[in-house]
Amino acid sequence: MIRGSCLCGNIKFQISGEPYSLSYCHCSRCRKAAGVFSAVLIGKSDDLVITDGQDEIGKFKAGPDAKFERCFCKECGTSLGDMNSGDIYVVAASALDDDPKIRPSLHIHTASKPDWYEIDDDLKKFSGDYVSED
Q1: Where would I find the H helices in 4-134?
Q2: CA atoms of 108 and 39, how far apart (whole Å)
């Protein structure tokens, strides 16, 4: 079981099962929510359960064509990721309270990274094609 929460503690969640990956996401939405990139834990959506504070989760959809909603705590603003993206969850690793027992394995959406940032590690890279409307 992997537990997580927001900064103020109003929202708590649990993840059962093993996550698919821990990745560094460089899409423009993650950059704007977290900085240069966001570390995200990805797994099967049925494994994620909000245990406290469901009503405290704010959602932001970046335009009418956006596929996912960015989730955050309405009180403290903690970025929670997309939480439920269809068959998968995408959770901001910064909201985890427990060690997920996996380590970052790849960079995703690298085509959206800022020009001034160089990725200088040996992790796999997936360019992706997601760029939000700014």
Answers
A1: 28-34
A2: 10
Average pLDDT, the chain: 88
Report field, pTM of the whole predicted structure over 0.90: no
* pLDDT tens profile 43-76: 999 999 999 999 999 998 877 777 778 899 999 9
How many whole angstroms separate alpha carbon 98 and alpha carbon 84? 20
How far does Cα 57 stand from its chain's mean position? 14
Between CA 48 and CA 83 the distance in angstroms is: 8
Q: String of b and e for 11-42 (b: at least 16 CB within 10 Å)? A: bbbbbeeebebbbbbbbbbbbebbeebbbbbb
pLDDT tens profile 72-97: 999 999 999 888 778 899 999 999 99
Neighbours of 92 (CB within 10 A): 25
Fold of 2-126: 2.170.150
Give the residue extent of every domain in the chain: 2-126
C-alpha to C-alpha distance for 125 and 109, rounded to whole angstroms: 8
